[in-house]
Amino acid sequence: MIQNIDYSKIDLTLPPPAKEPDRQYYFIAKCRQQVEAFAREWGRVPKACVVNYGCQMNARDSEKLAGVLESVGYELTEDENADFVIFNTCTVRDNANQRVYGRLGVLNGYKRRNPGMKIALCGCMMQENSVIEKIRESYRFVDLIFGTHNLYKFAELLDSVFGNRGQGMIIDIWKDTDRIVEDLPVERKYPYKSGINIMFGCNNFCSYCIVPYVRGRERSRSPKDILREIEGLVAEGVVEIMLLGQNVNSYGKGLEDPITFAQLLQEIEKIEGLKRIRFMTSHPKDLSDELIAVMRDSKKICRHLHLPLQSGSTRILQAMNRRYTKEQYLKLVEKIRREIPDIAITTDIIVGFPGETMEDVEETIDVIRKVKYDNAFTFIYSRRTGTPAAAMEQVPEEQVKAGFDRVLKAVQDTAREQAAKYQGCVMEALVEEINEHDPSLLTGRLSNNTLVHFPGDPSLIGSLVQVCLEECRGFYYLGHMV
Ligand code: 5AD
Ligand code: SF4
C-alpha cells in the first residue's frame, strides 16, 4: 500500500534512482514543483481530469493515474475543460475508438482557450500503430501518448511533458513487459470498495479479441503483494474488493511458487475486516471444481459469477477459439448451480461473429433460456485489425441486427424472471450511495450484484444492512431496512 510518502524530503539535486517505485516517487516530487509553479503563475490550483473508457481494469488504471495527478498537486475534477486531461482508452470494440476521436475534437477547442492545457492519451487503443499514426497526423495538439505497459511510469512521463520545450508530442509505447511495479499512489473512487489487479494480460487469443495484443502476456502478481494491498485497503475502511484479471481462473500459473486462484481466495478470506470478495472475469474453460467448492464454502465471496459465453453454438465457439462446447458450458453451469443454488450468473455475448448464421443465434438463445442469466452484456461483433477473425468472412449487417434483437430480448426475459425470484426476501446490501434520482433513498448492492433502493440515512454509506426486497422493478428492487 501507499506508505505516506513525504515528497518534500526527496533530494532533487541527486539524479533519479533506477529502482522502482522510488524512481517514480522522485519524479512525483519533481512534478510537484512544476505544478506549484503553475499555481503561482495562474493564481489558482491547477485542475486535472481523468476520463476512463472501457473495463474494470481500465477503471483501476485510471485510479492510479488520478493518484499520481493528485500527488503532484492537481485538484481532480470531472470537467474535461481542465489544465491536464488524460483519456484512458479502450479498443475492444471500434465504437470505443470513435468516441475518443470525437472527444479529442472537443478538447482541441478547450486548449485553444487555455494554452497551458496539457492533453494525454493512454491505454489499450494506444497500443495500435494505426491509432498513433492517425493522432500524429490529425490531432497534433496532444502532448503525451503512452500505452498499457508503462503506465507505472506516468510520473516520469509527466515530468517529460513539463520539461518539453516545443519538441512536440511525446510518444512512449512499449510492445510488452513482464514488469509489475508495486506501491504507486492510487486515488480510489469509493472509500468502501476497491478493485485490485491480481494479474495482467491474457494468453487466450480468442479470435475476435484484441486484448492479448494490447495488454500483452499473462502475468500474475505475487499473493504476498495482493494480500498486503488488501490489508492496507481494509485498514483504510474498504469492506468489499473486486479481484481483477482478464482470466482470473488461470491466476498464479507463472509464479515462482504457483498457487491456484481458489487458494488465493482462501487466503484473502482470512483477512479480518474484509466483508465481501468479488472477482472478474472467469473463463469457462479454466473454472475448476476447487473454485466452485471454495465459493460454496465461503462466507465472503459474493453470490455472483460473470461467466462469458460469447456464443451458444459449438461451431462458432470453435472458430472463436474459446476451447469449450455448448454442452461443456451448460454442464459447468449445472454444476455451479447445484453447488451454489443462490448464485447469480451473468455473461457476455457477441452477435455477428464471422460465419454466424441464424441457426447459430438460436443456439445462443437456447443457452440463454437454459442458463437463465441474471444479466448479460450483448455486443455486436466489431472487427479488430490484427485479430484472426478480421480476415474471416463478415456477416451482413441486417442479419447481425436481427440476431442481436433476438438475443437481447431473450436476455431481458430471463433477467426479469431471475430478478423477481427474491421478491419479499430479506437480504444483506452494501450501501453504496445516495440514489441518483431520489435523494431520500439509498442505493445498495446485494451479494448477487442486484441493486436495491430504500429509505435511509446517508451515514450508512459503506455499511452492510439488511433490506427487505419489497417490489421488483425489472432489474432492481425497492425495499426497506429491517
Ligand atoms: N467485438 C465485440 N465484442 C467483443 N468483445 C471482445 N472483443 C470483441 C469484439 N471484437 C467482448 C467480449 C468480451 C467483452 C469484454 O467484450 O464479449 O467478453
Ligand atoms: Fe479477450 Fe478471450 Fe482474453 Fe477475454 S479471454 S481478454 S475475450 S482473448
Overview of the molecule:
The structure is a single chain. The protein has a six-stranded parallel beta sheet with strand order 2-1-3-4-5-6, with helices on both faces. The protein has a five-stranded mixed barrel with strand order 15-16-17-19-18. It has 482 residues and is α/β, with parallel strands linked by helices. It has helices at residues 22-42, 56-71, 94-113, 129-138, 154-163, 211-215, 223-235, 261-269, 289-297, 314-319, 326-339, 358-371, 397-420, and strands spanning 47-52, 75-76, 84-89, 118-123, 144-146, 170-172, 193-197, 199-200, 219-220, 240-244, 276-280, 304-306, 344-351, 375-380, 426-434, 441-446, 451-455, 464-473, 476-481. The mean pLDDT is 96. It has 13 helices and 19 strands. The two termini are 37 Å apart. Helix content is 35%, strand content 20%. α1 crosses α5 (154-163), α8 (261-269) runs parallel beside α9 and α12 runs parallel beside α13. It is globular, with a radius of gyration of 23 Å.
**Proportion of residues in extended strands:** 15-25%
Which class best fits the helix and strand makeup?
Answer: alpha/beta
> How is the quaternary structure best described?
single chain
Helical segment count: 13
| Major beta sheet, strand line-up | 2-1-3-4-5-6
Which molecules are bound in this entry?
Answer: 5'-deoxyadenosine, iron/sulfur cluster
